[in-house]
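Checklist before submission:
- one chain only
- standard amino acids only
- sequence pasted in full

Submission:
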Amino acid sequence: MTSTTGNRSTMSRRTASLPSHGRELNLALLLQHLYAQGPMSRADLSRSSGLTRVTISDLVVELISRGHVIEVGTSSASRPGKPSILLDINRQGLQIIGVDLADSAVMRAAVMDLNGNVLTRVELETTDEKGEAASAQVIELTARAVQAATERIIGIGVGTPGIVTDDGCILTAPNFGWTDLDLRQQVCEHFNLPTHVVNDADGAVMGEHTFGSGSAHMMLVKLGRGVGCGTIVNGTRVRGANAASGELGHVIVGTDQGPECVCGKHGCVETWASIPSIRRALAQRPEGVAEADHHSSVMAQAGERLGIVLAPIVSVLDVQDLVLAGPARYVDDKLLAAVRETISARTNTSQRPNFTVQLSRNPDDIVLRGAAVNVLFNELGVA
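Returned file contents:
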């Protein structure tokens, strides 16, 4: 990832324009090495980073003073002289709060460690609140998670439906009734903690890419309150000119009109493939139709509509891995098969030997883990 969110500079970490920027880049470089490789000595860090030992020693002092790095013992390697002291990221002493607003029935939050593992979960049932009332629910949920933390919190990460700018402002989120809502600022000021907000599908693809089975050329489609996708091309997350890349939910599918959408149009893919829409369709089983047959029919229809939207995108971007994520009860093998068959019928993509369509292995936590990735990047420079 080369872009940042939240209250940090959007300057690429690969370049520096001021001496202070260069120092932050070097600090992030050391944290990146430790995060990826585990405990290392100062000499190891010097060799792997290319920085001098004097520079390494100076940077390590600062990282230890910040509480980001700790000494974890001595090296067992057989070398002449005094054993080297090993350093590591403070994995046990730092925690992240992740917030997932993607589900249509419940808001979720969690206390997480730096490896994306959920330590404590909290949930808040939603009541279709809109506007300020929905924002108040986010604050209430986050407060419960903050209270459950047992170590220092380095930041709060939020994954939400809607179009989210790089500085955490939600331009529009129809399902919450939000327009131009600076959710990042609200949460940051309420808890006095660094806060980073990302679109839920963008967060999900970050989580899958970092902790799951993602690749450098992947798309993750998130089904929840709406339908969105996050895309990574050549290892870089695609954002778009207006931070609206991946907003699939309000693309009209076909010319047969279809149900009315919350946005006022008819036939948006969200009216077929969002979780509330699938749930409503499953509840409307015609008399005399077996439940299993009805379930298969609903999933096939939702998968076909979703596949129609995805087929040209997958083909144009030459996606290698397409991942579907959402509640396992609804985002299942039948939906997966319908998406795969539709894409196969409409493109030549499926004939490529390395193209895959699969379900996320950890759909329940994928937005939470993506929110954690966003915090790690913005607060520690770990990508």
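Reviewer check: The chain has three domains: 19-89, 94-205+366-380, 213-359.
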